[in-house]
Amino acid sequence: MMSDPAHVLLGLLSGGVVGFTLGLIGGGGSILAVPLMVYVVGVSNPHVAIGTSAVSVAVNALAGLVHHARAQTVKWRCAAIFASCGIVGALVGASVGKAVDGRRLLLCFAILMIGVGFLMLRGRHDRGCADAQCNRQNASKVMTFGGLTGLLSGFFGIGGGFLIVPGLIASTHMPILNAVGTSLVAVAAFGLSTAISYMISGYIDWGLAALFIIGGTVGSYAGMRVSRRMAGSSGALTIFFAGVIFCVATYMIWRCETGG
Question: At what angle do helices 176-200 and 76-97 cross, to 10 degrees?
């Protein structure tokens, strides 16, 4: 399928969209990658789309992390605690998710997206504390959010950024720009954990993953630059992210219900 020039172009453009979203808001990569692979590129098996997206999102997250690290928007201690706890949850979630019907998995994914979108909108005007750090007082909270986020990320086959960003904000009260940069460490870790599990089961299209990675590398740099510009506007990043979630979730539910 990937030898078709049209599909190659669709793969590159879709990867660019995923990378741009990761650089912009630190998440949403797999929220977009899975439906793009299924409904735009034409991957027929949802489990292959999930496994392939996990690989591409993990690599694209690492590319975005480089840009954010240079901009000093990453809180490394928080990232390490959150990611290490989440990896265990991601491996458990991936094992359970592969046993669930693919169409039902996508439908549950869309419903979860809508719930998270509403939660993000509720806190859109909270700028957070620029000096927020992970310490003894909030370490257990960060670990709990990390573990639960990893579990859901593995189950739905997603990098988890759209859960990690609000999780980091809720557990540490850091600004959204710092949460975006910090989340990319966990996105990469969760994605790789999920990808390994799906790779063992043969659910990865490596040619498509390569196209998404190439397009995503370019997109992540552009997204990071836009993110820094939008950070000064109260709630702009959060509102944009929530809007993406609602649009994609609605489309996914419609396709699942119509049998598309």
Answer: 40
| Amino acid in position 201 | S
Place of tokens 């869309």: 110
Buried b (16+ CB within 10 A) or exposed e, 4-21: eeebbebbbbbbbbbbbb
pTM of the predicted protein model = 0.72
Helices of type H across 36-134: 46-70, 76-97, 102-122
Residue 82 — φ and ψ, nearest 5°?
-60, -45
Which tens digit of pLDDT belongs to each residue from 240-256? 777 877 887 787 788 77
**Residue 41 φ then ψ, to 5°:** -75, -35
DSSP string, 113-150: HHHHHHHHHHTTT----TT----TTTHHHHHHHHHHHH
Q: Which helix (H) or strand (E) holds 98?
A: none
